[in-house]
């Protein structure tokens, strides 16, 4: 993967995948997030994820079509 890793800070210990995609500005709505996740092009830590309720935690890495890389950083990490 040649794309640069983008760090996205969250103000909680965890966040649902669909909410994270909205927070990161990847999608504009929950419906758009649901469709993107269901399409099978989102991976969390290298594993394809199709559940929009997947809870992301500090240091998780999300990729979109193996290109766009996002890393979760929790400001509340214990």
- The termini sit apart by 30 Å
Tell me the strand percentage band: 35-45%
Biggest sheet architecture: 5 strands, mixed
Count the strands?
A: 7
CATH architecture, by name, is Roll
> What shape does the CA trace take?
globular
Q: What is the rounded Rg?
A: 11 Å
**What is the CATH fold-level name?**
Structural Genomics Hypothetical 15.5 Kd Protein In mrcA-pckA Intergenic Region, Chain A
The structure class reads alpha+beta
Tally of DSSP helical segments: 2
Q: Key terms for this structure?
A:
two-stranded antiparallel sheet, Structural Genomics Hypothetical 15.5 Kd Protein In mrcA-pckA Intergenic Region, Chain A, 2 helices, 7 strands, alpha+beta, 78 residues
Question: What features would you describe in this structure?
Answer:
The chain is α+β, with helices and mostly antiparallel strands. The chain is built from 2 helices and 7 strands. A 5-stranded mixed beta sheet has the order 1-7-6-3-4, covered by helices on one side. The protein has a two-stranded antiparallel sheet with strand order 2-5. A hairpin with a 2-residue loop joins strand 3 and strand 4.
